Amino acid sequence: MQPRDLSDLSPYVPGRGAEEVARELGMDPDDLTKLSSNENPHGPSPAAVAAIQETAPRVGVYPKASHTDLGEKLANHWDCAPEQVWVTPGADGAIDYLSRAFLDPGDRILAPEPGFSYYRMSARYHHGDVATYELSKADDFAQAPATVLDAYDGERMVYLTTPHNPTGAEFSREAIVELAESVSEDTLLVVDEAYAEYTEAPSAIDLLDDYDNLAVLRTFSKAYGLAGLRVGYGVVPESWADAYARVNTPFAASEVGCRAALAALDDDDHLDTTVETARWARAYLRDNLDAPTWESGGNFVLAEVGDASAVAEATQRQGVIVRDCSSFGLPECIRVSCGTRETTPRAVETINDAL
Ligand code: PMP
Fold this sequence. Notes:
transferase, 11 strands, amino-acid biosynthesis, alpha/beta, globular
């Protein structure tokens, strides 16, 4: 017996871990600079680490209230109803929950190309099909309503990523409104704001007051530095609360993760430092890399380097891990995450040497 045929899907290959690369290079992992997964170089808030330690003795029991507490706190944060917040195991989990709630077999999604691969994977897991809208390099990967609408053909779900991974380009609020106005009311517009803490642009969450075919995704993996704990959420219309109760995997967002997220939300100073460092590093990368780069609203910069695989391998040998964007269909580009004020200049020097 064999599993069903998913051979059209490329397996999700996360960037290599620092430990693995360090072992191969015979280096101390602490001497490596990992700028391949858009993580927070400052790590989690100390308050989140304390919450993890406090919660550790209780992991032997199923949690009761942690994810409800987190939903309520987020509702307060975003000035919406608690029923609008779907706490999920990472933003990936939110993508899956929406697939579960909205896709019937054969329904199609519309996703960006290049773009985050999990949109299509989740759709396929749920027996959906995938169409794409192309973001073109010739157009600086501009995220314009026309690009989406030219490709749109009544799909059940349309994904928008802003800031976009891996390009950093953004949709303006006007663009999102235009799309919400233009698609069918049976099309769910999913606005993925995984990197939104790093941009100056406002969240689309308040547009939920006006549209009931909109979902906004956020995560604690990026600016909150909790990637290893898998906590994200969607903000959705209040009337979908019943669907959440039905699609929610029991205890999927862990007690430890939710408690850490609750603590992280209270640490504004850590978030401010994180965002300030990332904006500084983003400008530094753009100003100092000897390669064409694109404007980015995220904590990373896309750079055109010729042979991305060769450049990524060369920098890795020097202890700097960057993302070769071949798997995004951009074999000439690398994506470099924002490091600290110490690691970023060193990484730039290494990358420039490899060009
Ligand atoms: N959306 C985008 C655009 C991403 O880049 C990522 C992480 N790579 C996610 C969602 C998922 O994030 P997580 O599941 O860690 O919350």
